[in-house]
Amino acid sequence: MNSSLDDSKPIFQQIKEQIEDMIINHSILEGERVPSTNEFANYYKINPATAAKGINQLVDEGVIYKKRGVGMFVSEKAKTILYQKRKDAFYFNYIIPLKTEAKKLNLTKEELNEMLMKEEKSDDN
Amino acid sequence: MIIEANNLTKTYKNKIALNDISFSLEEPKIYGLLGRNGAGKTTFMQVLAGLLLPTNGSVLVNGQTPFDNQKITESICLIKEGDNFKKDLKVKNVLTIASMFYPTWDNQLAFQLIDEFSLDLNVKVKTLSKGMESALGIIVGLASKAPITMFDEPYIGLDASARNRFYEVLVEQYQEHKRTIIFSTHLIDEVSLLFEEVLIFEGGKLIVKDDTDELRESCFSVSGPVAKVEAYIANKKVVNKQEFAGMLTATVLNANKQAAREQGFDVEGVPIQKLMIYLTSKQGGGVK
């Protein structure tokens, strides 16, 4: 969990990503309670309406669900949804910048492939 | 409470403080009121608080003018930079008077905060240090629980840890009880995360009124080779341009971050404080 937020990016989005990370990193498990709007607002000293916006988007996406009067909880399919979402974003967030940089350096496709394979080998060891 | 400014104009002798401003604040939110010195922020707050009459146009609260109208002013609390209270009053008298004026007054909160900020109830306002006087203002503002509470640069002399405590209490209180809070400060980096909406004044005009997260998304800097960036910004609102060693960094407003990234630019967000500086600085500033 970050101890502070970045004022140059939408805050609701950062709250959303924090919850997603907590779920992906297993720090909140399926069926467990997610921090409330007020807990986020107090911890980060942010506007509760902004925190609520991030939380509500995750409810809409089916990642968390609301139990009336109790709070927000991680849904059964949360991980499946989040993995798919991250996979979709992977190409854009990692592959595109990788290709852009490779082009700047005049790396050939072969060289790029070689590097990707090399990375895999060292991972295996 | 609904606040409406209609063609609001205020002039002092030959200086125009507010120049034909119209907008409305309809929901209880925390609004950040930003701008340089002399931009018109304080004048606006004083008209809204019923302390000044506009030269032209009006500010209406739930359809009524606040000037000389206790029904409205008892719902409005304005804490200024200083001179909020008569110097000869004791701290406890300040609290008593405020408790009689504001129907929404929270005495328990007032005394809790007096204790937290270590204020002595029996001393006169004139013997308080600058920081302590500011603390008293903040306490009255918070405990008033007025449906419209305004803080106009309320913390001269208040140290960083006391300011931090103020923000904490503000968030807690706001959660318990939503109200319209209008916050004007130059310490934007400290409080911008609290603002749900931002209003930026410049030269007596309202130049920005937007959701804060919306601004964080739609205002950003793009960097790249000069010709490429020039082409990108050709039909956009540019608030700042800096060229260095063949590379141009331009800050745009109302643009699409994702699209800029897809075009291969280095894209960087702009904090609210920086945006305010870009929009209101004389050199190359302002929306073009």
UniProtKB/TrEMBL annotation, chain A:
Q: Does the keyword Transcription regulation apply?
A: yes
Which keywords belong to this entry?
A: DNA-binding, Transcription, Transcription regulation
Q: What InterPro entries does the database record attribute to this sequence?
A: Tscrpt_reg_HTH_GntR (IPR000524), WH-like_DNA-bd_sf (IPR036388), WH_DNA-bd_sf (IPR036390)
- Could you tell me which residue ranges the HTH gntR-type domain spans? 9-77
Q: Tell me which Pfam families the record gives.
A: GntR
PANTHER family to which the protein is assigned, alphabetical = GNTR-FAMILY TRANSCRIPTIONAL REGULATOR (PTHR38445:SF10), HTH-TYPE TRANSCRIPTIONAL REPRESSOR YTRA (PTHR38445)
State the name under which the record lists this protein.
GntR family transcriptional regulator
State the species of origin. Aquibacillus rhizosphaerae
From TrEMBL, chain B:
The record's annotation in SUPFAM superfamilies points to: P-loop containing nucleoside triphosphate hydrolases (SSF52540)
Q: Does the keyword Acetylation apply?
A: no
Q: List residues of the ABC transporter domain.
A: 3-228
Which Pfam families does the record cross-reference, listed alphabetically?
ABC_tran
Keyword Nucleotide-binding tagged: yes
Note the superkingdom of the native organism.
Answer: Bacteria
Q: Which SMART domains match?
A: AAA
What protein am I looking at?
A: ABC transporter ATP-binding protein
Q: Which UniProt keywords apply?
A: ATP-binding, Nucleotide-binding, Transport
Which organism was this protein described from?
Aquibacillus rhizosphaerae
Give the matching PROSITE patterns.
Answer: ABC_TRANSPORTER_2 (PS50893)
Q: What Gene3D superfamilies does its record include?
A: P-loop containing nucleotide triphosphate hydrolases (3.40.50.300)
List, alphabetically, the PANTHER family matched.
Answer: ABC TRANSPORTER ATP-BINDING PROTEIN ALBC-RELATED
An example of a GO molecular function for this protein is: ATP binding
